[in-house]
Amino acid sequence: MLDTASGAPPPESGLLTAIAERIRVERARQKLTQEELAHRSGLSRVHLGTIERAEVSCSVTVLAQIAKALELPTRALLPD
Fold it and tell me: How much is the pTM?
């Protein structure tokens, strides 16, 4: 994801990457596959994968669904 004017990543990309990493780490810690977490959270595996790779942003609602599926408070997926 690059800002076409400057060639730099947009400012939100760091946030997306941090959230994506927290989701991936927690999913792995719980020994869940993407398929299992997607099913638990009501998302498609493809959509979850794009979120985990920080290719797309997700709504607060989707973030809350993922957190609930991981049995975490939503804020646990947000960087400090």
Answer: 0.84
